[in-house]
Amino acid sequence: MTSASSPATRIELPRILGAIRPRARWTETSLIAIVAVALVVGSVSLSLGVTGRLAPFDPRGLAIYVAALVLAHVGQVLAGRRSDEILLPVVGLLGGLSLLLMERLPQDLVTLDIGETQLGLGDVQLVWLVLAIAVATILGITVRSDSWLRRYKYTWAASGIALLLLTFVFGSDVAGQRLTLRLGPISGQPSELLKVILVVFLAGYLSENRPLLIEQDTRLGPIRLPPLPYLAPMVAMWAIALGIVVIQRDLGAALLFFAVFLALTYAATGRLSLVAIGSVLFFAGSALMASLFDHVRDRVDIWLDPFADPLGTGYQIVQSLHAFARGGLLGTGLGEGLPIVGGRLPIPEVHTDFPLAALGEELGLVGVIAILGLFFVVIERGLRIGASAADDFRAILATGLALVVGVQAFIIAAGNLKVLPLTGVTLPFISYGGSSLLVNAIVVGLLLALSDRGVEPPPPPTDVRRWRDRLRRRAAR
Amino acid sequence: MDGMLVVIWAVRLLFLALLYIFLARVVRSLLRDLRAAAREPGATLGRLLVIESPGGDPEQGRSFDLDAITTLGRDVNNAIVVEDPFASAEHAVLTYRGRSWYVEDLGSTNGTYVNGRVVATVSPLGFGDEVSIGQVRLRLERARLT
User: Fold this and answer.
1) CB of A200 within 8 A of CB of A450?
2) Which residues of A touch B22 (CB under 8 A)?
3) Chain segment B46-99, per-residue pLDDT in tens
4) Is A17's pLDDT higher than 50?
5) Is the ipTM of this structure higher than 0.85?
6) Partner residue opposite B19 with nearest CB, options A38, A52, A214
7) What is the pTM of this model?
8) How many CB atoms lie within 10 A of CB A456?
9) Quick check: A27 and B29 CB within 8 A?
């Protein structure tokens, strides 16, 4: 009943540049040690496969990566926050697998010239991975308040839409999709960033309107629907998703946004009717798109029967299926898959869209299940952080961040395995790509910050002065 | 048997085994975390944290674990006794129904407020919302886990 727990003991947190109060994180320490050992063994296995020597494949790159992980761990220990200890090692292992894979693929897939030296695929990915670890750790250590996300939800939404429009107007076409935005030397894919902005906006919107969405009904005969004005954002979201498909030809992002939107709406309100309406809208929209646009219909046709044109449109997916089949139960071993057949890659775009197929070939079913397990752990941590958050905004934010990563991993894994039509999204933490890695690092950093019990309490929802004034007036009377 | 082949297979299997050792360690930590949360005595529907209380009863910073029906007011029979000159004897009641918390004003003299807005009869209450009774401000928070 009224069993009062003791007043919430608040931990004095050091200011960013103030006194440092280190706090041991033994779980994280031991997990990172296992990650380091696993990566060294993986590297030796790769070296045996490629060159036949019993030594790490690329000792320098491996050392840099492991050092970055250890530094991130030490940084968190020194900062002394009580944040999650499992996310960093899990993501670190996924990133390590990515490094092993990228070092092993043909290095000229991606090159970057810095002065005299030319960096290949593995080196460029290493740079991005180290940057991603740095971003996640810095966010996890320094973010102590969420008001910069909470207060400006419409500003965030507007900036997201602006990004989308900028990409549409100034973006450059790569492989028939207009996804890349170039600003001077820097280029990136804004739709990666957009997914985080979407979650921030939805968390703000849903936490503010949750009572209304739960409480009120619009009756339509026997059907009880949520209040109609509050359905407007849902319809707007649907329209934006369709717009992305039509204008940017980016099926993956559209699917990801809409799925995360539906899942979050359900998580916030618990109303199945909203999900039902959303699903009906989704299938109606998909059917419409498939009948109107060739590129959508092609994707569906390839999915239904890739073997109809195995050397043309179905080539990628057929090769991916063959790769999984070659892998079998235990895989061919790292470095012993088929990198090049007849002068071309067996799977085009293997480093961005099909890393799971390459890993499936070399690590087999056992390895793929382990990788999927790692993604499940990331989702579990996010949902758990959401379940124990102090208020609705943080709960929905953490849930959404976890789902964005999880749903994206599912979409591309299912695409590689011909469970869903193939859509070009990246496999989080594993695919090659700066924007993908950095944005997923932002997600991890925010989750780390949200998991800390010591962050400042949520601000009061609205102004409480009104209540006090009214009380004063009554007292005066 | 070719010695090299044995080494290659040993390293390969060791790598896969290490992936699973890592997963097993992670799952063990996750289970420990979940069990600790389930054992927690305060695993209730939510709690009410006293943010401001000029009278000192209930004292500021105290938190109450909530039942599905929790009454508030100055009378000693209330689940949460609010000793405040502006509070009525039977001031308000918090109920958990279906998916959400609700606060109901029991015809108090000075009214019940949610986030500074007066509650006419019943108002839904989200986690993080503030309820004001007299001069006492309370915030609804999720039950503490872990």
Assistant:
1) no
2) 31, 34-35, 38, 89, 93
3) 888 898 888 878 888 888 888 888 899 998 888 899 888 889 989 999 988 766
4) no
5) no
6) A38
7) 0.83
8) 12
9) yes
Nearest CB to B130; choose among A89, A363, A460: A460
> Could you tell me if residue A327 is inside a domain?
yes
Is A375 part of a structural domain of the chain? yes
Q: Which of B49, B86, B117 sits opposite A8 (nearest CB)?
A: B49
Count of C-beta atoms within a 10 Å radius of residue A304: 10
Choose from B2, B8, B15, B94 for mutation: most chain A CBs within 10 A. B15
Give CA A125 to chain center in angstroms. Answer: 17
Q: Is residue A139 in some structural domain?
A: no
pLDDT band at A135 (very low <50, low <70, confident <90, very high): very high
Would you call A390 and B37 a contact, using CB atoms and an 8 Å cutoff?
no
Does residue A225 sit in helix, strand or coil?
A: strand
Please list, in sequence order, all residues whose beta carbon lies within 8 angstroms of the beta carbon of residue A12, skipping any fewer than 6 positions away. Answer: A21
Q: How near does any CA of chain A get to the CA of B105, in Å?
A: 15
Cβ atoms of A318 and A341 within 8 Å: the answer is no
Q: Is residue A114 part of a domain?
A: no
Q: Which residue of B has its CA nearest to A32?
A: B22
What pLDDT score does A10 carry? 47
- Total domain count, chain A: 1
> Is pLDDT of A1 > 50?
no
Measure the CA–CA gap between A384 and A450, rounded to whole angstroms: 11
Q: Is the pLDDT of residue A18 over 80?
A: no
**What confidence score (pLDDT) does residue A296 get?**
81
B11 against B98, higher pLDDT: B11
Residues of A in Cβ contact (< 8 Å) with B49? 8
